[in-house]
Request: fold
Amino acid sequence: MMRAMILWAFSVVLAGCASGAGAGVLGPDAGALATSDGRALALSEIVSDHDATVLVWWASTCPCVKRYAARVEDLAARHGGERVALYYVASNADDDDEVVREADGRWPLPILRDDGGVLARHLGVISTPTVVVLDRMGQVRFQGWIDNERAPGDPDREAWLEETLGEVLAGAGDGLRRTPVWGCTVTRSLGQAGRCHTPRQPAAAGP
Reply:
C-alpha cells in the first residue's frame, strides 16, 4: 500500500515537472539507467526505496573523478546502508558498456550507465564528479561537490553534501542546495574532449 502511494505521488508531482537543465524533481523523462551487466534499472524505484539517493557523476578519463574517489569511499563507508543508496553515474559518450563493465568493482561505488546522457541533461549536470542527492519523493535536494576540496578531518573542510544529507535523513527542510561545481565536461559525442572548467554554479532551475 505504501509503495502504491509513493508511486502515485511520483506520477502526480512529476506530471508537470520541467525536463530542462537543473530540474528540481526527478521527472518521467529522466531516462533509464543500466547496471554494468546490462540490466535496466529504474531510478524511481531506487529513490522510492531509500530516504536518500546519492548519485556521483563518473568518467573513466577525468582526473578529478580519480582525485575524488577517496572522499566518495569515505562517504559510502559512513552513510551507505538501507537508508542511503549511492551510485556512480556514467554519462560520457565514450564510456560505453564495455568501459563501464571493466571499471565496475574497481571504484568505491557501483557504476550505472546513463545512455545518451539523458539523466545528466535532465538534472543539468555538466561535469564530473558532480553529486546529486534525491530524497524519497524524487526531489533534488543537493547538486554540487561533496565539499570544498578538503579531506575529512581537515579543520577548513566545508562538508556541503553531508550537511544536506543529514537534513534529508532527519526529514528536515525541502529546498535544493547548490554548491560550486568544477571538473571535466560531460561529453555528448564520441571523441569529444572532456575539457576541465573552473568553478561555477549549476544552471538555474527550469520553468
